[in-house]
Amino acid sequence: MPTITDQLSQFLAKKDHTHFINGQYHAGEGEEQITVINPANEEVIGQVAVGTKADVHQAVMAAKKAFQHDSPWRTMSPDDRGKILYRFAELIELHSETIAQLVTLENGKLIKDSRSSDAGGAAKTFRYYAGWTTKIEGETLDLSQPQKGGRQNFAFTRREPIGVVAAIVPWNFPVSIASWKVAPALAAGCTVVLKPSEETPLSALLLAELAMEAGMPAGVFNVVTGDGKTTGAALTAHPEVKKITFTGSTYTGKIIGKTAMDNVTGVSLELGGKSPAIVFEDQIDFEATAKGVAAGIFRNQGQVCVAGSRVYIQKKVFDKVLTDISHIAQKMNISHGFDETADIGPLVSKGHLKKVCGYIEKGQQDGATLITGGKTPKEKGYYLQPTIFSAPDNRPSIIEEEIFGPVLAAIPFDDLEDALQKANDSQMGLAATIWTKDISKAIKMIDRLEAGVVYVNSPVRSDPNLPLGGYKQSGIGRELGKTGVYNYTTLKSVNIVF
Ligand code: TXE
Q1: pLDDT in tens, 294-328
Q2: Which residues line ligand 1 (CB under 6 A)?
Q3: Edge-to-edge strands of the sheet including 407-413?
Q4: Which domains does the chain have, with CATH numbers?
Q5: How many whole angstroms from 216 Cα to the centroid of ligand 1?
Q6: pTM, rounded to two decimals
């Protein structure tokens, strides 16, 4: 078990945490507080303020001021902006153990995942986008319309930063998902108000401290803590916000989408998934496939938007593959996130555990067969055994709805057409994985799968250069990669006639 860093002890000693606005901590107007709980032992690790409409207004106005045409941020060269982002990445790396430990404390996830996905992932994302500051470009254009009086012209587009960005993030990867939004927004030259999830608000405040240390001018990166109905709603409805970027549930995404339209604010939505893993009978290495499918659903306790929560297995090998995955699940060591030998930690909260257990009950009522797991094995903490169901078809509701826990449903299929029909038979379309040694089969599937991300012979892994986003109700827009930074720009078309 790692020793808590001095930096983290000092941070937690504050107990009552406030917003971070205009380069400093800011107590806020409201009385309401949210208690942050360690999901591994149900102990309190701190309190954060619930941002009121007035707090949100203050943060947005600080971001607006920092975005003015003559502000230090706007007048800075792209190269200097890149240097600050690069320094930010280096500081995240320097303080990665503190960040990782804080994420494990507030979210419950395994420390190795906090280190690699959250702290490590965020550092990589900031470094990647530091490089983009100097590569944002428009185009020169030949026009079809002749200029009046036979005059000459020069037409081009400019990509300009869109303005104040509201970034609303969930609790499953609190630091890395924040970085997917904050890094490209800042690289484009925007300013940001980040609202972390009420379950995991502390790591965002630590990030804000590091942003200041990296040399970011005051007001460029602000954090307002709070819930969805008060703080999140005030932020998304603020008329000075020019772009909303959201990751979370489809339910909340629809509310935010409607609010965005009221103000005609730009919006990107990365919503849930119910992603299929499709296993063909032509495996070379069944063991590796079973391990990959298990990792695809059980990593981060299944609380992953791209989790492969439906596995379709070709009939001839259905029993074998299901048995192999079940053995992996049964051997998993369930323990707290700081236990370096743990394979699976607690879920994020009591409410979420209850919701996931509700799905397990519903699955059994709907006629799905419980193969393994389904029990809460510890008295303290929000632990759940990795759980596997099997079902003859897509009918049970656990196969349609996002559970967002360590729950896998296995369904047999006949042939490629049957696999495609079953995999696409969903309102969601975030990701899919295909497990086959036959490249032509894989290409046919890639062509017809309704999913924003497809991996072959591997669970889905995010990368700063690989766009991520969904088909259908899994969202609108893509994050990461070049698209990720262009999300935060707006296009100006110019024609100079001379
Ligand atoms: O999500 P919400 P929750 C799914 C997953 C999970 C379910 C609920 O299935 O079980 O969503 O999780 C803020 N205006 N995903 O309740 O409500 C909220 O404060 C503005 C999938 O955590 O979507 C938080 O910061 N903001 C997902 C963020 O939205 C509002 C990751 C997400 O909260 C708001 C997480 C409002 N009206 C959950 N209401 C993924 N795609 O990875 C809430 N929020």
Answers
A1: 999 999 999 999 999 999 999 999 999 999 999 99
A2: 168-172, 195, 197-198, 227-229, 232-233, 236, 247-249, 252, 255-256, 270-272, 305, 402, 404
A3: 369-372, 387-390, 407-413, 308-314, 275-279, 431-435, 453-456
A4: 6-271+474-495 (3.40.605.10), 276-464 (3.40.309.10)
A5: 28
A6: 0.97
